[in-house]
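Justification of resources, computational component.

The compute hours requested in this renewal are based largely on the per-chain cost of generating structure records like the one below. Each record pairs the submitted sequence with a full structure-token output. That output is archived, and it is also reused by downstream analysis tasks.
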Amino acid sequence: MAQAKKLVGYILVVFVLYTIITSPDRAADLVQVGFEGISSAAQGVGRFMTSLVN
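The structure output for this chain reads:
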């Protein structure tokens, strides 16, 4: 089972590198979307905590 996880990890890394090399613009867009999602989630948690305090 550990070997399967390693294999999946290697395949994922190769896929990510292939995507970045062949289409850097698309890869940059995906990273931007990911960071926007993380930012939105953090803002939501902040609003929730603020409402708990008030």
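The helical segments are 2-22, 24-53. The chain has a mean pLDDT of 92.
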